[in-house]
Amino acid sequence: MLPDHASLFVKGLAQKGSPPWRGDDKDGHYVFALGENLTSRYKIHRKIGEGTFGQVLECWDRETREMVAVKVVRSTKKYREAAMLEVDVLQLLGKYDRNGSRCVQIRNWLDYRNHICIVFEMLGPSLYDFLRKNNYCPFPVNLVRELGRQLLECVAFMHDMRLIHTDLKPENILFVSSEYIKIPDYKSHTEGTFYKRLPKSSAIKVIDFGSTAYGHQDHKYIVSTRHYRAPEVILGLGWSYPCDIWSVGCILVELCSGEALFQTHENLEHLAMMERVLGPLPQHMLKRVECVLF
């Protein structure tokens, strides 16, 4: 039997050590349990997000003694390569955005059990999550104006560095703080008083740079989540910096209305919706369409 001090030492190693090796799930996602460690430095507190790329875990950083968000990327080759691209972009952005006022800040990255893990500062909810929890109530126009200013400043910053985000959407824009206040919403038609949320701070940061493209490259492939996809992308004309600006416009309309501007999953319907809102597509674009792929 171990002496008391020896058993305490072994217990301490177990608490700070890595869990027993276990395989990934069928899609290459890391399998974990709450309270376990990612290396001896990060203790898993809870899962805060999931996507095609992998999972986002809220972890306690024993070294800096703060909560951080750790993006644990799927172990497949495709997503590992995208994650390493994201690390490169984040480090480049961080080099020139020293105050971290525009884009999420990377704290660290590691390759753990064949998973690229990117450690970020902890931020608040996404604009989409805030809308959803607010019963899709539109944001006040003054708030949308301020969010739009920050978003455009971030996009201009990236474009000045010859980077195109390519996947701007409400899910990829996070409030810096989770704090909010509740105010009565007298426009509600439900019985009783309905309260809506307003963020205490309008500060936001852009996240998810795994699809970022370099402006000097030739781009023909499909980018952007459907509702925020620019017409030149749909038409196969090639795309560049303007595709980010199109996405920003779609986002701002959504924040003002509470719902996506172009709710479709089909190309022809999407283009028809664009024409209904903005008028006919420019002839110079249509003349460049070499073949119709619908």
Automatic annotation (TrEMBL):
Residues given in the record as ATP binding sites: K71
A GO MF term: ATP binding
InterPro entries (alphabetical): CLK_kinases, Kinase-like_dom_sf, Prot_kinase_dom, Protein_kinase_ATP_BS, Ser/Thr_kinase_AS
Pfam families: Pkinase (PF00069)
The keyword Transferase is assigned to this record: yes
Name of the molecule in the record: Protein kinase domain-containing protein
GO cellular component: nucleus
Assigned keywords, A-Z: ATP-binding, Kinase, Nucleotide-binding, Serine/threonine-protein kinase, Transferase
Protein kinase domain residues: 42-294
Gene3D superfamilies the record matches: Phosphorylase Kinase, domain 1, Transferase(Phosphotransferase) domain 1
Similarity comment text for this entry: Belongs to the protein kinase superfamily.
The keyword Nucleotide-binding is annotated on this UniProt entry: yes
Taxonomic lineage from the root: Eukaryota, Viridiplantae, Streptophyta, Embryophyta, Tracheophyta
